[in-house]
């Protein structure tokens, strides 16, 4: 089982766990839904709003590509249009296969064009995920003065935010120090069971390599700018779909951003490909805290999820065509790339 896609798919317990979580989430959402109200939301929607929403969704892939280029290397021999296609191909695989296979796909496709190969590309994706988590935390902190959050959400956000920022600060310091800094740290952590394992050290080393651009003054502002543009785009996308369902009189832009935070954190939970059920559950939970009708909230969450997932699949298929690739070619390519990186430690 050298092919990582096959290996991930064959790990049935992960797939079954994700499916069970998705089914349970859907059940909890559906059981209290008034189907007449839900249908009314779809029947009376103004779908013209989905045209600008589609453009904004595409712009988020562009923002992600610009940020990724900075993380890889500004002078890397790979263009922004190609990176946009590769980002969308990753979404295609994530929405159709379990275990976030799309991340491996992106690392393989970019690894063909950068000096560090698969391993370097994968390290940038680890950093990308860390940046996204920090962005979600920042959005939550920005929202504190604008919406009244439940105490548990506020406390949880502050605790998680503190831990995330502290962890990021430690990693940035390690990135400045390089491998000698990791060696010194592991003189202590290496004695801790599990945490001091070789797998954890390899993971930290990859993060540190990927974080190098953030420590460079000329690159850090651009990375922060495109991170802000990316998540502002996500918030605007959510609001445009909300407008399509004629719910802007009930839900403010700030509350839409809170929904974005909820769905962002929900992606951590194991789920089926495309995060079915978990995404909708996060939307219903977030809007329910502010007395939005469950049926309307479910209609919005389901509509937003289907719109984005289906459109990203289309974008991904366009990307495959632009790259002159097929599913089988990508799968085979990842298999060949594996010897370049300690995959068992990923």
Could you walk me through the main structural features you see in this protein, from its secondary elements to its overall organization?
The chain is built from 15 helices and no strands. The chain is mostly helical and 346 residues long. It has one domain. Helix 7 packs across helix 12 and helix 13 packs antiparallel against helix 14. The protein is globular and about 60 Å long. 39% of the residues are buried.
| Helical stretch tally | 15
Poorly predicted regions are: 339-346
The Cα radius of gyration reads 21 Å
* Global morphology: globular
Question: How many independent structural domains?
Answer: 1
Helix content: over 70%
Report the β-strand fraction as a percent range: under 5%
């Amino acid at each position: 089982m050298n092919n990582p896609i096959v290996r991930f798919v064959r790990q049935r317990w992960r797939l079954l766990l994700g499916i069970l979580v998705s089914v349970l989430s859907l059940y909890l959402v559906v059981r209290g839904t008034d189907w007449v109200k839900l249908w009314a939301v779809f029947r009376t929607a103004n779908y013209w709003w989905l045209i600008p929403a589609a453009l904004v969704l595409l712009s988020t892939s562009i923002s992600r590509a610009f940020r990724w280029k900075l993380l890889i290397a500004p002078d890397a021999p790979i263009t922004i249009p190609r990176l946009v296609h590769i980002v969308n191909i990753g979404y295609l695989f994530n929405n159709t296969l379990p275990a976030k296979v799309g991340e491996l796909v992106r690392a393989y496709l970019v690894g063909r064009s950068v000096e560090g190969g698969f391993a370097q590309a994968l390290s940038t994706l680890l950093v990308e995920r860390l940046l996204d988590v920090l962005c979600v935390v920042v959005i939550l902190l920005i929202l504190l003065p604008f919406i009244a959050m439940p105490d548990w959400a506020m406390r949880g956000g502050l605790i998680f935010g503190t831990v995330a920022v502290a962890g990021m600060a430690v990693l940035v310091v390690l990135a400045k120090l390089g491998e000698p800094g990791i060696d010194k740290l592991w003189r202590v952590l290496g004695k801790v069971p599990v945490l001091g394992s070789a797998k954890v050290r390899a993971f930290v080393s990859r993060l540190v390599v990927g974080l190098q651009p953030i420590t460079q003054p000329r690159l850090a502002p651009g990375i922060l700018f495109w991170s802000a543009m990316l998540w502002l785009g996500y918030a605007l996308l959510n609001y445009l779909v909300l407008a399509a369902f004629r719910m802007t009189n009930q839900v403010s832009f700030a509350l839409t951003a809170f929904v974005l935070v909820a769905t962002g954190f929900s992606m951590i939970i194991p789920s089926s490909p495309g995060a079915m059920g978990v995404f909708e559950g996060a939307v219903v939970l977030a809007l329910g805290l502010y007395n939005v009708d469950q049926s309307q909230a479910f209609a919005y969450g389901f509509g937003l999820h289907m719109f984005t997932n289906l459109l990203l699949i289309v974008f991904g298929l366009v990307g495959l065509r632009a790259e002159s690739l097929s599913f089988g070619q990508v799968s085979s390519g990842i298999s060949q790339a594996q010897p370049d990186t300690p995959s068992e430690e990923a």
